[in-house]
């Protein structure tokens, strides 16, 4: 007998958000407005993190396009592929927020490398590390 899986309410919501994103206008300013609106919906502690991530990505990789991805702030390359994203802890009732890098990020290192970081605060050391990661993620060498 085949095992059936049921999606949680949060997963179903993320899928619906993704469908709406695909239908949305592809104008860069509208996409960024959608990101800022999603950030504004987050609990305050997550807003602080998401705004800082947004600031860092815009400064270190201004050519990436801010857009929502499954209802999360994300940043895509010229081909429309997600490079980096922010997932607030409240998105799926996690104990920490996550800064993640998708397949388009150039972070490959040997045969195994991290693609996601748990984050509860972005101090100077974490900001420095994130800036370095974003720069590496978009490097074309």
TrEMBL record:
Pfam family, one: DUF1801
Highest rank taxon of the organism: Bacteria
Annotated SUPFAM superfamilies: YdhG-like
Domain YdhG-like span(s) in chain numbering: 50-138
Protein name, UniProt field: Uncharacterized protein DUF1801
Species of origin: Ornithinimicrobium humiphilum
